[in-house]
Amino acid sequence: MSVANRAPAHIRALSPYQPGKPIAELARETGIPERDIVKLASNENPLGMSPKARAAAAAALAEGARYPDGNAFALKAALAEKYGVDMARLVIGNGSNDVLEIAAQAFLAPGDATVFSQYSFAVYPLATLARGARGIQVPARDYGHDLDAMAAAIDEATRIVFIANPNNPTGTFLPGGEIEAFLARVPPDVLVVLDEAYTEFLPPEKRYDAIAWIARFPNLLVSRTLCKAYGLAGLRLGYGIAHAEVADLMNRVRQPFNASSVAQAAALAALADEDFVLEAAENNRRGMAQLTAAFAELGLEWIPSSGNFVTVRVGDGEKVNRALLAQGVIVRPIAGYGLPQWLRVSIGLPGENARFIAALRRALA
Ligand SMILES: *Cc1c(COP(=O)(O)O)cnc(C)c1O
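Above: the input record for the complex with pyridoxal-5'-phosphate. Below: its predicted structure, written as tokens.
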């Protein structure tokens, strides 16, 4: 009997998360120089990060031999101020992925269940199964969440419902009012994790304030990240906002130093540079128009997206992906999500989008 065989069955049954292909890896495999490779595979910010965040990160390196502030006082104070909430409602994560994992750790025991949508974020089933809990996947409606069906799927064992809005990988959007109505139907002892990783890309008319709902729904956890619109994907920084009792439980199980000092310093500076985020959203709006115009011209179907990416039907996704890689363009195949005919493309800079469109044209020819 090997040590691996003695790992719990629910761990041995896990399939690892499949990230976007790193630029260096494609360079190694193809010999294409890294500078000639375009990566539109991980919903990263094509503008990079705010120069102010970068300067703060560099300054924080000088103190890299010291442990970070495990309670992230300065960062929490800034977030508390930004949202008008008490600091006791905040949980800082090593990326918002960490916030999702911490929620699963705090609220799931073996035999419990979570509810999430088909075609939603891969981390929800992963975080569930890693706790020995059972995932209830609810069929999507028009590639997005079917909230009626999700409410109906909640059973006695359900402890968490995961909702991504906008959703990844499909980019679908639920109006705030529908989520609010859903919250009123969920039993108060079931945690609703509202994952708003892409909320900064929403145009003003789609905005809603989920954080204000926590007063009425103490079972709501709102999760956000500095890794997408704020451009800190490589530094890893996310946060959760919830009722103080929920946040307290989560803070008990997280790693004591889960957010690095460099990430905390960069996040603090990034939060203060709202102009940078507006610029990222504007680049995204234009890039989305550029890509969808090309899809229309090529006669391709796409899913209207509210995120910083768009999912397009190309036929044989694996084959088209291979043809794109050979041209130095990395996008995200999503066969693992049950969408083998589709590719998810992150919005890049105008020139990167043009490179992708030209490569796609050739790949489809
Ligand atoms: C990218 C993403 C996250 C987490 O990203 P972090 O880099 O860990 O902050 C969370 N939820 C969704 C839906 C995402 O797409």
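Notes for the reader.
Residues 43, 95-97, 121, 164, 168, 195, 197, 225, 227-228, 233, 238 surround pyridoxal-5'-phosphate (CB under 6 Å).
The CA atoms of residues 175 and 206 lie 7 Å apart.
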